DNA sequence: AAGTCGGGGAT
DNA sequence: ATCCCAGACTT
């Protein structure tokens, strides 16, 4: 497939550039498979700069697989708070417990065993195998598809799973057998620093001479990617319910779905319930009698596939305790120990 | 193949 | 506003 392409020269130019240009990142200090694993999970759909402080805190709190396996899920979610895609954290802990139980705490270096772990998909499997275990396995992420779609001028839709497999087959041919770790990280680093989505720095590119897209002046047109449809807006009334001891009602979200097992202030889907029936509905749903008070403001929160439009209301209750399993009455200091999504962290600013 | 699952930064 | 980020899982 790669006729008239000087693979070994390409490898050499890429590896030389990576050696001198790579960023100093906390998971690059050694080849600890656990650190590589944690970093790769955090880096899914997340930029390096965002991940670094989370990675430092996470490794500080859970230095080994045993520490993570022994932790409460809520502790793990609290460290993950604000990073998003929280199932990553839950799957990671699930998988680490599997490693402790089944593999005596040793992260497996076999592709099948690694890929069977929860949350370890094709990309992460290849990343761990190549970076931690020096195996020449492809690790195709968005960076790799962007770089190679330009270098090789691949004009197929990268959103199609079949096309991603095509890129994996190309990487299998291209990857350095001597240093698969630096090769995979080098392409990704190139995509992050030079071969960027918009206005790539082709003049600084170490593999410019191999790039078909640059030769034809179409680097800005690649990769081809079909557009995702826009999100739907869902309106809620979100309630800051306070009793006369300055305690607030918080609610644990479902163990499945969006923001699973995180905490929030109670939210009422207002289109379904109606403002007039809000207090009655809340009483019948949660067994808590409340009185709606002043509106405190609006908050719009954008997710990948939906948009929350939150109307924030203050409310009062005379109860000192709650019976519903989902609910807790807590003061502000205690509230800080629970994992909240960012939208509800912003709501806390309306307290007091 | 399409939908679900966060949040932030760059443009 | 739109895109996209070191993607995986479910249906």
From TrEMBL:
- The record's EC number reads 3.2.2.31
The family database entries (InterPro entries) matched by this protein are listed as: A/G_AdeGlyc_MutY, DNA_glycosylase, Endonuclease3_FeS-loop_motif, HhH-GPD_domain, HhH_base_excis_C, HhH_motif, MIG/MutY, MutY_C
Keyword Iron part of the UniProt annotation: yes
Q: Which reaction does it catalyse?
A: Hydrolyzes free adenine bases from 7,8-dihydro-8-oxoguanine:adenine mismatched double-stranded DNA, leaving an apurinic site
Cofactor annotation comment: Binds 1 [4Fe-4S] cluster.
One GO MF annotation is:
purine-specific mismatch base pair DNA N-glycosylase activity
- Start and end residues of each HhH-GPD domain: 42-193
What is the protein's given name? Adenine DNA glycosylase
């Amino acid at each position: 497939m790669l006729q008239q392409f000087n693979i070994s020269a390409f490898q050499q130019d890429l590896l030389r550039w990576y050696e001198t240009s790579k960023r100093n990142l906390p998971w690059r200090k050694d080849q600890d498979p656990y650190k590589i694993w944690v970093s790769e999970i955090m880096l899914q759909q997340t930029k390096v700069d965002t991940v670094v402080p989370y990675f430092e805190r996470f490794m500080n709190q859970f230095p080994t697989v045993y520490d993570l396996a022994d932790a409460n899920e809520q502790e793990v979610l609290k460290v993950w708070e604000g990073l998003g895609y929280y199932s990553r954290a839950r799957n990671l802990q699930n998988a680490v417990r599997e490693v402790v139980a089944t593999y005596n705490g040793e992260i497996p270096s076999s592709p099948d065993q690694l890929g069977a772990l929860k949350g370890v998909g094709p990309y992460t499997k290849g990343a761990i195998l190549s970076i931690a275990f020096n195996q020449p396995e492809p690790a195709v992420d968005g960076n790799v598809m962007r770089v190679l779609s330009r270098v090789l001028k691949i004009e197929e839709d990268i959103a199609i799973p079949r096309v991603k497999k095509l890129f994996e087959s190309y990487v299998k041919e291209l990857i350095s057998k001597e240093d698969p770790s630096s090769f995979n990280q080098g392409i990704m680093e190139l995509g992050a620093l030079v071969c960027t989505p918009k206005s790539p720095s082709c003049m600084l590119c170490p593999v410019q001479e191999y790039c078909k897209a640059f030769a034809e002046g179409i680097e800005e047109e690649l990769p081809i990617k079909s557009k995702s449809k826009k999100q739907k807006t869902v309106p809620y009334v979100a309630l800051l319910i306070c009793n006369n001891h300055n305690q607030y009602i918080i609610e644990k979200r479902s163990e499945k779905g969006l923001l699973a097992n995180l905490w929030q202030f109670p939210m009422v889907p207002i289109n379904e319930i109606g403002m007039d029936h809000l207090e009655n509905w809340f009483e019948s749903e949660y067994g808590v009698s409340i009185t709606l008070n002043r509106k405190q403001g609006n908050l719009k929160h954008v997710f990948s596939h939906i948009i929350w439009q939150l109307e924030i209301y203050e409310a009062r209750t005379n109860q000192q305790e709650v019976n519903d399993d989902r609910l807790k009455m807590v003061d502000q200091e205690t509230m800080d120990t629970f994992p909240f999504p960012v939208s509800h962290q912003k709501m806390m600013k309306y307290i007091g």
